[in-house]
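Long-time lurker, first post. I've been practising inverse folding by hand and with some scripts of my own, and I keep getting stuck on stretches where the structure tokens seem ambiguous. Below is the full token string for one chain I'm working on. Before anyone asks, I'm not after the true native sequence, just a reasonable design that respects the backbone. If someone could post their per-position residues I'd love to compare against what I wrote down in my notebook.
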């Protein structure tokens, strides 16, 4: 019975860790551009996650959110 309770506690801990650890961040490549300078070197410019989410203020004051 003691072994069964330990296995059950371990299973609950693993499931809690799976649910708590699902908040991983990810980034998507929005735009990429390459150019070559006079010395033959290539420079690559990348834009990652350039999404801006605006919040309209409820009291019509630009200083509050």
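-- Answer (accepted) --
I ran through it position by position. Result:
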């Amino acid at each position: 019975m003691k072994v069964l309770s330990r296995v059950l506690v371990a299973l609950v801990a693993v499931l809690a860790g799976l649910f708590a650890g699902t908040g991983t961040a990810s980034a998507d490549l929005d735009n990429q551009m390459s150019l070559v300078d006079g010395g033959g070197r290539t420079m690559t410019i990348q834009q990652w996650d350039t999404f801006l989410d605006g919040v309209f203020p409820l009291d019509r004051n630009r200083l509050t959110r």
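A couple of notes from the structure itself: Residues 13 and 19 are 10 Å apart (CA to CA). The mean pLDDT is 79. Happy to go over any region you disagree with.
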